[in-house]
Amino acid sequence: MAKKGKKAAGKGKASTEGLVVGSKVKNYVKSKGLKSSGELIDAVSACVACCLDKAVDRAKANKRSTVRPGDL
Fold first, then answer.
1. Could you report the per-residue pLDDT of 46-59, keeping only the tens digit for each?
2. Nearest-5° angle of CA 59, CA 56, CA 15?
3. Domain locations in the chain as residue ranges
4. I need a surface site. Which of 31, 43, 46, 55 has the fewest CB within 10 A?
5. What is the pLDDT of residues 9-53, one digit of tens each?
């Protein structure tokens, strides 16, 4: 059986896959005495991507090519 290749992200659209380490997120939630749903990792990754998108836009608006912590 042939392996399925990963689909490339659309032009100009970055993939949110791999922005967070799932096991680290789950361990953090577990350390707080709670369980995590199967959909949590994707939701956290989407939140991180949104935050980074806003930081990138702010850096561009300030005519910088470097995203800084203050942009968050």
1. 999 999 999 999 99
2. 165
3. 36-65
4. 31
5. 444 455 556 799 999 999 999 999 999 999 999 999 999 999 999
